[in-house]
From TrEMBL:
Membrane topology: Multi-pass membrane protein
Region entry Disordered, spans: 229-286
Compartments (UniProt record): Membrane
UniProt domain MARVEL: residue ranges: 15-223
Name of the protein described by the UniProt record: Synaptoporin
Residues annotated as transmembrane: 21-42, 102-124, 136-157, 201-219
A Pfam family assignment: MARVEL
Keyword Transmembrane helix: yes
Family in the record: Belongs to the synaptophysin/synaptobrevin family.
Cellular component terms (Gene Ontology): synaptic vesicle membrane
Amino acid sequence: MESANQLVSVGTFQVLKLPLGFIRVLEWLFAIFAFATCGGYSGQLRVSVDCQLDKASSNLSIGIDFAYPFRLHQVSFEAPLCDGRRRESLFLIGDYSSSAEFFVTIAVFAFLYSLMATIVYIFFQNKYRENNRGPLIDFIVTVVFAFMWLVSSSAWAQALSDVKVATDPDEVQELMSACKVMTNKCGSVQGPRWSGLNTSVVFGFLNFVLWAGNIWFVFKETGWHKGGPARYAGAPPEKQAATFSQQQPYNQGSFDQSGGYSAQGDREQASEYSPVGEPNFYSNQM
């Protein structure tokens, strides 16, 4: 308990009340929702084949299971041929693993970086602001992640649309030879549920909005926004004030010395060319 209390006392948890820290926490949470809803998905569809000439060969509930990463061309199932008891092995069409895995990878890395950045904000605030390197790195990484969220979410949204088409029971029926015979009846028993994957796309674009909006708050922490001379970019306000206060007496002293020197030189010249009493003597002679 003592070590935990010391750790809490050292940390600056006030940063979580600021937009910079609060948005990082939201990014961390939304990244979890994004890769959990996509990477943990598994769906199923069911179709039926009713053989009119051979009822014994009919199968009214053909289950087809698929899941992340949506390599549908590797998903196989068996369908009756309505010709005796023969069956055919079929595969779904399409491979959408690249877009799905890209989306999940960005979500995982965003989760890890948001967690690391939040820890740095709380416990290593001084190191973060030292030499302005921390804010600059944070700014660049935030811009990159905002762009990657936009690209990955757009790619995954398009891939999800293609997955829905490839797993549509009506499209799957066209792959079966028995369904091409007019005497047989094929139908859809159950379609996949898309609520989880639709949610993943929504969280993907929400993450893009969060990261894009956080660019401004991270930029405000950099020296590019604060401006000022380069030699004072990384110095605290106390040091800058001390530096200017030290320069002020030096400038004042230089001014006083120059003024004293000028005044003394004028007095010396006056004493050399016009001694005391000489003007009176000259006037007496006149």
